[in-house]
Amino acid sequence: MASERALKLGAAASVGALMALTAVADVMSAAPEARRIVLCCLAGLVPATVLWQCLRALAPRAPRMEQQTSTPPASRELSDALLALEARLEHAPIALFSIGNAAGPGAVAPLNASARRLLAPGRASAPQDLHQLLAAQTAGQRQLISFDTERGVERALVAVAALTMQGVAQRLAALMPVESELEAEALNAWRELVQVLTHEIMNSLTPVASLSRTACGLLDEAAEGLPADIHADLGTALDAISRRAASLVDFVGSYRSLSTVAQAQPQRVLLEDLFERLSMLLAPQWQALGGRVVFSVEPASLAVMIDPGQLEQALINLLKNAAEAITGKAPEAQVRARLSRGGRLRIEVSDNGPGVPEALAAHIFTPFFSTKKQGRGIGLAMVRHLVHANGGTVRYARSVSAGARFMLTF
Fold first, then answer.
1. CATH annotation of 267-409
2. In what order do the strands lie in the sheet with 393-396?
3. Which end of the chain has the least Cβ crowding within 10 Å, N or C?
């Protein structure tokens, strides 16, 4: 619009100049005719040229045929296919990494959202160590690797393929965390093993305990026909058999609970209320030991769908282990609940005890494994059963200070 207005002003100015030129010609009419004609032509040449250019610019133009810019169908389909492929790779449930590029043969870069989440704060505790672990993988191999996370050691299956892009040799690594699946399979295997063992052992122990009691009664009835020393020896032997059989029945019965975890009955639970009940239950015991246990929830309105009885039992087992492990000083424990990245519930149980030796940390949830002289190896195994029954995971995490630290995630 501004250019059109300028053209109109230019045309008006040219017309005015021609009119002025006409007036000048009238004034110069007294001059000789030939000289007058030449001067008028020269003076009118410039405004006439300007007027012609302005009128030409203002004249309506015939529509020009625009160049065909629409994308051919084949190119459009290829573009759509590339966009769809990019979206699928971005949202793939496995973490994809490129190994080797223009930055160097060992450079590792995430390729999709799963890979970036794996390297984000709160997941891999040492991303550079994970990069080095991936860079060391060779093409064509599939391997189970382990790396440290904030929740503890996590295992993942990695597969590597070789390719060349724009003349640069690269490797493509696909990483799938399988810790939860492996734990679930291990729990099922242990549950089946414990169920078979307890069934067979109980089948053998029950008649032994019954027969030993019967033999003790028969021995008392036949006491008059036996020498006193033989009667005493038989009585001692039968009593020992009876006692050991009864103790083993009780021992095996405690393991049977691992294979008979009740089906979880989830309901909406306000964690502040659940922690208040646990505090009233456990505080007197810890005060008797000269210590304390502190519960906290952030925010106070935090709620979760879970079986409240099973979660309470899991926390009780963890706090019982903490109280038994702390010796020589006042025991202290903290139970904190909050939302982690991704909106998942995280319950952290920590204490001021000696912690778990690094060499034993991988075995503490294994049934029958215990570091206590009189331990049966049931407490932490039961914690893992209860947490998994409610769709969660439990990890032993390295503590920044002294003591043990367990992370329950739902």
1. 3.30.565.10
2. 292-298, 332-339, 345-351, 405-409, 393-396
3. N
Distance CA 24, CA 17 (A): 10
On whether the CB atoms of residues 135 and 99 are closer than 8 A, the answer is: yes
Amino acid making up residue 353: G
Among 363, 388, 386, 397, smallest CA distance to 314 is for 386
How far apart CA 250 and CA 243 sit, in angstroms, is: 11
User: 71-87 pLDDT, tens per residue?
Assistant: 677 788 888 888 888 88
Q: Where do the structural domains in the chain lie, given as residue ranges?
A: 2-58, 92-177, 182-259, 267-409
pLDDT digits (tens, 9 = 90+) for 192-213: 777 777 777 777 777 887 777 7
CATH number (3.30.450.20, 3.90.850.10, 3.40.50.880, 3.40.50.720) of 92-177 reads 3.30.450.20
DSSP, res 326: -
Cβ proximity of 348 and 405 under 8 Å: yes
Sequence-ordered list of residues with C-beta below 8 angstroms from that of 342, at least 6 positions apart, any chain: none
